Amino acid sequence: MKKSLRCFLSRLLALTLLGGPLLLASGCAKEEADSAGLHAAILVDAAPGLQIGETFQVMLPVSKTAVDVVTAPELVPMSRILDLKMAEAGDPELRMLCFVTYVDGQALKTLNRLSLRGQGRRLLLSINDTIVGVHPIEGPIQSGEIFFISEVPGETREARIALMEKYRQGAAEAILASRKTVERR
Length: 185
Known about the structure:
alpha+beta, eight-stranded antiparallel sheet
């Protein structure tokens, strides 16, 4: 199947499965996508004045922040993400919805190197070419567990949680399929 058609079908699947007006980022040339077109990756915002790889500007739906995203090369491809969960974090009165990713050792080294010199930048969690979470880099990343503040829109907290769960389930299935493909090699 041609790459552009696969990209179109992947986006159509994301819109169909997840409903509503979603902000879709570019960058469909993903090596690790499974046959259903599901995909997850950790990307990084482009440093001001730095032109590396392919970039695309997106407006984050919850924080209303414009971000230049480096879409290729991916900072952490799906094959390096071990798991994806949902969590709540922060003060009991100001709970934030988050995605929690777990990455392998190689990805952790990459993230650690970037975080040492990239303070003030953001890591972005992409699922099906949609930015769904943001992690501000405030210091060195030394753990393979990374919290991404949810950028999934919703009229109510319950609607956001339901949409986040759809993203999480789709990405978790794709991550598992990717891990099986890598293990067979």
